[in-house]
Amino acid sequence: MVSLCCVGRGEMRSIKCLLGALLLSGCGKQDISVTHCPSLVQGCAVELGAEKVIVKTNTLPVPLKPFTLSISASSARQVNVVLQMQGMDMGLNRYRLLREPNGEWRATITLPVCISGWRDWLMIVELDGERRAFAFQTPGN
Ligand SMILES: [Cu+2]
Question: Is residue 6 part of a domain?
């Protein structure tokens, strides 16, 4: 049942992957709208109530290379991000963003390697309980 995709930082990593698989096994359906994001560096936007939420990274996301994620959502009180693959357990990649003085939310993120070679990621942004997803790809070889 557990995907072999969760390669990363040794034993702890596989325990997290196992937990992730158990947690995800109960919720097969995904009732969340997904916005395709062709370039996270250029940024992608989604409407959330009256606000336009923009996600942006400083570099192209590549596995094992930390990048900075910025989210503009000035009225939010808490912002979390979960990174996963559709149809594959990649372990628990959950980040809590911190608010910058300019009102942006920010986190440093490191994607795990997918040994199955998949490049399609889903970034689920949680803003005060509201969830929006962005689909993006890591570059091929
Ligand atoms: Cu994968």
Answer: no
